[in-house]
Design brief:
The protein is an all-alpha fold. It has helices at residues 33-60, 64-70, 80-94, 104-109, 118-129, 133-150, 155-166, 174-207, 212-238, 243-274, and strands at 4-5, 12-13. Helix 5 (118-129) packs parallel to helix 10 (243-274), helix 6 packs across helix 10 and helix 7 (155-166) crosses helix 8. The relative contact order is 0.10.
Length: 275
């Protein structure tokens, strides 16, 4: 048997892959254009297949991705963090409206934001910087668009903590709650994408840009209902919880859904104002 030395860990390499570190046996043939193109294409196809399979399961079987992962079935789908990163990147690349980011005018003109001293905070910031409100508005709006993407992962530990409290009697490790929360937050990002392109755009075309308040109210109810229904089935599959408790937990999640988004918006506001 042809035994060589692994270039990564110096372990004996009798097979295609090193039994010690997993490094693939290397030969100069891998540097040819043909081989490089074949490996690149194979990698892209493999990624697409796993991503689409993971995305399909996310919607078709709520809670299944997390259940499979914590039970050791980890090669069929994309790794949870990698999947979330890809969904996050795609979400912010294709979304024309970012529900996690609001322009400065919203914070200084409308409730509930003005109830938390946003007007005074902005006035002080402008005075400290010795700039006009118009100039600072541009700076703020640019920052919040960027930072709303960077800190979206905060929702994962928040929902992980909420789930750990709601299902405390089910004796799950906290990391298991985090895995469940990660897929739930990924679903929410996909849900916002779908509601823009499948509901809001068509309604705006039908009503020719009128009835905006009615459309927003309808969308709020629709999103809350989708969140509650999805969480119910996900909790039933992952925690194997009884229907009544799953329904109650789902109502709690749906009821606090937009409150958590508002809290995130306020967190971003004060982060930008003070740092």
């Amino acid at each position: 048997m042809d035994i060589t030395i692994c270039k990564n860990c110096q372990h004996e390499l009798p097979e295609t892959f090193c039994p010690n570190c997993g490094e693939k046996r290397f030969d100069k043939h891998q540097l040819t254009i043909k081989h490089f193109a074949e490996e690149t294409l194979e990698g892209l196809i493999h990624f697409d297949t796993k991503f689409l399979r993971t995305l399909k399961t996310l919607f078709a079987k709520p809670g299944q991705l997390a259940a499979d992962f914590v039970e050791g079935l980890q090669t069929r789908y994309m790794k949870p963090i990698a999947f979330f990163v890809v969904v996050n990147l795609l979400f912010f690349m294709v979304m024309v409206f970012n529900p996690y980011s609001l322009a400065l005018d919203n914070y200084i003109k409308y409730k509930p934001f003005v109830n938390y001293g946003t007007q005074q905070a902005v006035a002080k910031k402008i005075a400290d910087l010795h700039v006009s409100q118009q100039l600072y508005t541009g700076v703020f709006n640019t920052k919040i668009k960027s930072e709303s993407k960077a800190y979206i992962f905060i929702f994962i530990p928040v929902y992980g903590l909420i789930c750990s409290l709601l299902f405390i009697t089910y004796k799950r490790m906290f990391v298991e709650h985090l895995i469940f929360a990660l897929h739930f937050v990924a679903f929410i990002l996909c849900l916002f994408f779908l509601q823009i392109y499948l509901v809001i755009y068509p309604l705006n075309i039908i009503f020719r840009g009128t009835h905006q308040d009615d459309i927003e109210s309808f969308m709020g109810i629709l999103i809350s209902a989708c969140v509650a229904i999805y969480f119910f089935f996900a909790a039933r599959r992952f925690y194997r919880s009884n229907p009544w408790w799953s329904a109650l937990a789902s109502l709690i999640i749906a009821y606090t859904f937009f409150d958590l988004i508002q809290a995130y918006r306020m967190l971003l506001f004060y982060k930008i104002i003070h740092f």
